[in-house]
């Protein structure tokens, strides 16, 4: 296999891992005002992802940096072209990250309410905009002969992309609800299952139509399988959730996310950013890639270290495998 | 406004801001790991209380380091897309390796450390903080390899077809002579930062004779680390200066505001130049010292800005190849001066702590608390100096800053970005500083608070979490 193809797959893998992992902690963040009715409940919700959200977010950093290393043109065009949406994502991730760490540092209800808002919006904005961004990548954007983005912000906010944003947002809410049902005990767990049931309906509707349009307009024969698989996994998750099989439901939503992202990347290949101003302007795995030498070094590094990362991150989830309920939240003496 | 200027302001603001938190993270993670190790080895509760206290301050700082680091990773693509296209083949690799080797380790094991007090055996728990510490050092190694390549590009060629830089020797990039000096320089400076932070906060408590059993050992450890690291900063700084004189003579000439080539060259202590930095009006010099510092010989030749400008024009075509001298000259002095002062203060502090008990004079403690700010000043001055001193180049001698900016991004978008980030960073700075001061003043947890929960309720599933957000 060509190294450029290998790196396309690695980049797709990194983004898929990112959406699988941060997908549920975005969902948890968006569900904070829904499932956390008082401060203790909100702390239960937040602490389900407390030890892991930061490690999950690193997949995004690494995915971006890997694009820079393996496909510099892709990195340059994407991040300069999608400038304002990406800025919004960065600002959201900044306030969200600080919010997790600082929320509990004061007992003042106003202080906590502000950080709760930061967690909610800091989760919702990227959950929506990532869908917008990836739908636009697949759909194609105006690129000139130098691979520079020559469109405007309104070009990026087309109906297909907005549907993509809605899809990721709802999918992550569902993934987060199922995760919360799996990780909590007591009333929150019951409520999370109820919310997951509602979110599943919305996810099937939004995700189903988004994947169908994607398939009809940009799909390949093989993406019928992945898109169909994603839809089936969603239905499976909904059914499992309905029967209270939380582990299976989580596997279902996770599989749906993995297959949906796989659909997008497979539909994209061998382009990495198709141009709507003629195929000659499109960025592909060939014309966007780094040299063979750079890709060879990067391949060795990725092949050796990615499995190690997966092992120790997996171990973290094992260490913190216990469910959390309101009785587990320590009452801390606040600092004067 | 010119997009290049806006993008440069954003880079400057976000990078200096980010680097307020980074060295403290590097320094404190090791210090916290040392204290926790000391607790495990001796069983003394004071060390555990110290670990919890400094760990808390470390986390308040770490959160800011992480979130501001995200911007660093992506503003190359956003504001500097032509730079990214030009250097991606070389520059992207260390960045990606940094993420894969360092960021994952830091974030994952810190999560384990924060929440794992009752979930992990002691040894595994302290190992998590050591891994965080190693992660921060690895991170510095790779990002400095990338920066050193901008200072002194090696291990590459320019592709004839695309006109872009192409990696030819990754080992050369990792063993870049500038990197081999800049890496120890930065790491030791980070330990000075962590050390002085710990010393300053300890001094505040010791002045009030509060929790002496926690803060006296903390202070001793902090001052010892600061002094040793300061010596490391000086040695590596000397090496870096000599390497820079060889690789980027213009930067070092601008650091000294030397306009005409001199042999031997005196070290300028003070100089006033014309407002544009074009020439010197008045100054005080120590004979021959600069020659020795930059070449190792009392009679070495130090080339001046005007000669180097002529050389650069001959090599690269007409243009202005001089950095803005007032900024380089004063930041260089600030960095070196404040660095030396820090070393002196840590040495003095150690002398004062030789005997049992604590010095009486309140002034000693006031100086100690104020000194906490010194490394942050020196760190910022050092980076402003080395980055401004490389101008007009983004990659020295290869790519100009003016040719690096994103051609497709409007000045309006960039302005929104820099204003939004600066405003947010400003608000966060107030919040962070407020928390830091509040938690620093609050002092360590009491002995009772750090003791393990009573064994009466041994039912693990009902016990509350050792730590929760």
From TrEMBL, chain A:
Q: Which UniProt keywords apply?
A: Cell membrane, Electron transport, Heme, Iron, Membrane, Metal-binding, Oxidoreductase, Transmembrane, Transmembrane helix, Transport
Give the enzyme class.
Answer: oxidoreductase
Enzyme Commission code? 1.10.3.-
GO cellular component, as recorded:
cytochrome complex; plasma membrane
**Annotated membrane topology:** Multi-pass membrane protein
Compartment(s): Cell membrane
Q: Report the GO molecular function annotations.
A: electron transfer activity; metal ion binding; oxidoreductase activity, acting on diphenols and related substances as donors, oxygen as acceptor
At the top level, the lineage of the source is: Bacteria
**One GO process term, biological-process aspect:** aerobic electron transport chain
Is Lipid metabolism there in the keyword field? no
Chief location of this protein within or outside the cell: membrane
Transmembrane region(s)? 6-36, 82-99, 119-140, 160-182, 194-216, 222-240, 247-269, 297-320
Which positions make up the signal peptide?
none
Name one matching Pfam family.
Cyt_bd_oxida_II
Question: Is the rRNA-binding keyword given for this protein?
Answer: no
NCBIfam families, alphabetically?
cydB
Q: Which family does it belong to?
A: Belongs to the cytochrome ubiquinol oxidase subunit 2 family.
Q: What is this protein called?
A: Cytochrome d ubiquinol oxidase subunit II
From TrEMBL, chain B:
Alphabetized UniProt keyword annotations: Cell membrane, Electron transport, Heme, Iron, Membrane, Metal-binding, Oxidoreductase, Transmembrane, Transmembrane helix, Transport
What membrane topology term does the record carry? Multi-pass membrane protein
Mention any one GO cellular component term assigned to this protein in its UniProt record.
cytochrome complex
Q: Which residues cross the membrane?
A: 20-41, 53-71, 91-115, 127-146, 187-207, 219-240, 332-353, 365-385, 405-431
Q: What class of enzyme is it?
A: oxidoreductase
Q: Does the keyword Heme apply?
A: yes
Protein name, entry field: Cytochrome d ubiquinol oxidase subunit I
Q: GO biological process annotations for this chain's record?
A: aerobic electron transport chain
Assigned EC number: 1.10.3.-
Q: Where in the cell is it found?
A: Cell membrane
Source domain of life is Bacteria
Q: Which family does it belong to?
A: Belongs to the cytochrome ubiquinol oxidase subunit 1 family.
Q: Species name for this entry?
A: Actinomadura livida
> Which GO terms fall under molecular function for this chain's record?
electron transfer activity; heme binding; metal ion binding; oxidoreductase activity, acting on diphenols and related substances as donors, oxygen as acceptor
């Amino acid at each position: 296999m060509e190294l450029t193809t290998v790196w396309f797959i690695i980049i797709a893998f990194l983004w898929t891992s990112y959406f699988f992992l941060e997908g549920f902690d975005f969902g948890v963040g968006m569900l904070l005002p829904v499932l956390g009715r008082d401060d203790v409940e909100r702390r239960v919700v937040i602490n389900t992802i407390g030890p892991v959200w930061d490690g999950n977010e690193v997949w995004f950093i690494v995915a971006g940096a890997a694009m820079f290393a393996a496909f510099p043109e892709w990195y340059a065009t994407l991040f300069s072209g999608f400038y304002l949406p990406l800025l919004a994502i960065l600002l959201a991730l900044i306030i969200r990250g600080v919010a997790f760490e600082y929320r509990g540092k004061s007992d003042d209800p106003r202080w906590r309410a502000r950080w709760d808002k930061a967690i909610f919006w800091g989760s919702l904005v990227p959950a929506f905009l990532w869908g917008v961004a990836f739908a636009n990548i697949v759909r194609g954007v105006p690129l000139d002969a130098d691979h520079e983005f020559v469109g405007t912000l309104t070009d990026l906010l087309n109906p297909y992309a907005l549907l993509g944003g809605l899809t990721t947002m709802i999918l992550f809410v569902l993934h987060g609800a199922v995760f919360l049902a799996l990780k909590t005990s007591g009333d929150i767990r019951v409520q999370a299952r109820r919310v997951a049931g509602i979110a599943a309906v919305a996810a099937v509707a939004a995700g189903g139509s988004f994947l169908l349009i994607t398939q009809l307009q940009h799909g390949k024969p093989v993406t019928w399988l992945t898109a169909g698989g994603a839809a089936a996994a969603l239905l499976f998750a909904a059914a499992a959730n309905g029967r209270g099989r939380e582990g299976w439901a989580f596997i279902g939503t996770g599989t749906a996310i993995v297959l949906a992202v796989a659909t997008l990347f497979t539909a994209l290949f061998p382009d990495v950013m198709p141009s709507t101003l003629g195929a000659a302007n499109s960025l592909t795995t060939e014309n966007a890639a780094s040299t063979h030498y750079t890709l060879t070094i990067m391949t060795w590094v990725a092949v050796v270290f990615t499995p190690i990362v997966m092992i120790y991150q997996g171990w973290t989830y094992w260490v913190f495998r216990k469910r959390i309920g309101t009785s587990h939240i320590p009452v801390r003496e606040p600092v004067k | 406004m010119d997009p290049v200027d806006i993008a440069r302001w954003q880079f400057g603001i976000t990078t200096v801001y980010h680097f307020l938190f980074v060295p403290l993270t590097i320094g404190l993670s090791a210090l916290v790991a040392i204290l926790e190790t000391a607790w495990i080895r001796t069983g003394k509760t004071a060390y555990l209380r110290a670990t919890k206290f400094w760990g808390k301050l470390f986390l308040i700082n770490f959160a800011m380091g992480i979130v501001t680091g995200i911007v660093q990773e992506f503003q190359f693509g956003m504001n500097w897309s032509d730079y990214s296209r030009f250097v991606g083949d070389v520059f992207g690799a260390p960045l990606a390796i940094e993420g894969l080797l360092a960021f994952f380790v830091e974030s994952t094991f810190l999560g384990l450390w924060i929440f794992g007090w009752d979930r992990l055996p002691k040894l595994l728990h302290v190992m998590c903080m050591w891994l965080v510490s190693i992660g921060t050092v690895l991170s510095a190694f790779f990002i400095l390899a990338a920066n050193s390549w901008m200072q002194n590009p090696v291990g590459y060629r320019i592709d004839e077809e695309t006109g872009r830089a192409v990696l030819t020797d990754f080992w050369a990039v990792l063993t870049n002579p500038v990197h081999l000096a800049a890496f120890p320089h930065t790491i030791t400076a980070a330990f000075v930062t962590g050390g002085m932070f710990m010393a300053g906060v300890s001094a505040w408590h010791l002045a009030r004779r509060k929790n002496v059993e926690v803060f006296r050992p903390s202070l001793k450890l902090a001052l010892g680390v600061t002094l040793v690291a300061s010596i490391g900063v000086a040695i590596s700084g000397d090496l870096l200066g000599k390497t820079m004189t060889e690789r980027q003579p213009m930067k070092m000439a601008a650091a000294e505001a030397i306009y005409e080539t001199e042999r031997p060259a005196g070290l300028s202590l003070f100089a006033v130049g014309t407002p544009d930095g074009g020439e010197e009006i008045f100054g005080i010099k120590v004979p021959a010292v600069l020659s020795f510092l930059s070449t190792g010989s009392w009679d070495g030749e130090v080339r001046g800005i005007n000669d180097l400008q002529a050389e650069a024009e001959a090599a690269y075509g007409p243009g202005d190849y001089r950095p803005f001298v007032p900024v380089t000259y004063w930041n260089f002095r600030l960095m070196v001066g404040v660095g030396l002062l820090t070393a002196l203060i840590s040495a003095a502090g150690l002398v004062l702590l030789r005997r049992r008990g604590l010095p009486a004079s309140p002034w000693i403690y006031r100086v100690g608390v104020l000194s906490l700010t010194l490394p942050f000043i020196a760190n910022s001055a050092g980076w402003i100096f080395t980055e401004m001193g490389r101008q007009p180049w983004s990659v020295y001698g290869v790519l100009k800053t003016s040719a690096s900016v994103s051609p497709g991004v409007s000045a309006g978008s960039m302005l929104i970005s820099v204003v939004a980030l600066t405003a947010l960073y400003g608000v966060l700075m107030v919040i962070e500083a407020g928390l830091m001061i509040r938690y620093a003043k609050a002092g360590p947890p009491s002995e009772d608070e750090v003791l393990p929960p009573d064994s009466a309720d041994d039912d693990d599933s009902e016990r509350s979490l050792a730590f929760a957000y």
